[in-house]
Amino acid sequence: MCDITSSKESYEKAAKVAREHGLVHEQGLAYELYGAFLKSIVEIEDAIKYFTKACDCYTIWGAHAKVSQLRKEHELTFDHEAGMRTESAFGSKRGRADLVTGG
Questions:
Q1: Residue 4 located in a structural domain
Q2: Do the domain assignments include residue 101?
């Protein structure tokens, strides 16, 4: 049986440790995997938030092809006037989270 709370805490901790050590690519990976976990338990709005954070990290790291792949795979869009925004097939929208922060 999966302990969802413990799993969520572990993903958050992985991203925090990566950020504290300046490993933006590892932080992006932690956010991406957390997003996939959230999507698997049908927490779609939160999943979109973490996929967006992953895109922010990967953009800083310079992995633009990875950002494109995530956008396409998870139906994330970019609104140039409003900054990063996400939209899924489920119609959810989220504003851009601060770059590589835990917020």
A1: no
A2: no
What is the C-alpha to C-alpha distance for residues 34 and 32, in angstroms, rounded to an integer?
A: 5
Domain count, the chain: 1
With respect to residue 59, please indicate whether it lies within any of the assigned structural domains: yes
**Structural domain for 44, as ranges:** 10-94
Rounded to whole angstroms, how far apart are CA atoms 57 and 23?
Answer: 9
Please report whether residue 3 resides in a domain: no
Are 12 and 102 in contact, with CB atoms under 8 Å apart? yes
Tell me the pLDDT of the chain (103 aa) as tens digits. 579 999 999 999 999 999 999 999 999 999 999 999 999 999 999 999 999 999 999 999 999 999 999 999 988 875 433 344 444 333 333 333 444 555 5
How far from each other are the two terminal CA atoms of the chain, in whole angstroms? Answer: 29
Question: CA distances (Å), 63 to each of 6, 43, 56, 90, in order?
Answer: 30, 26, 10, 27
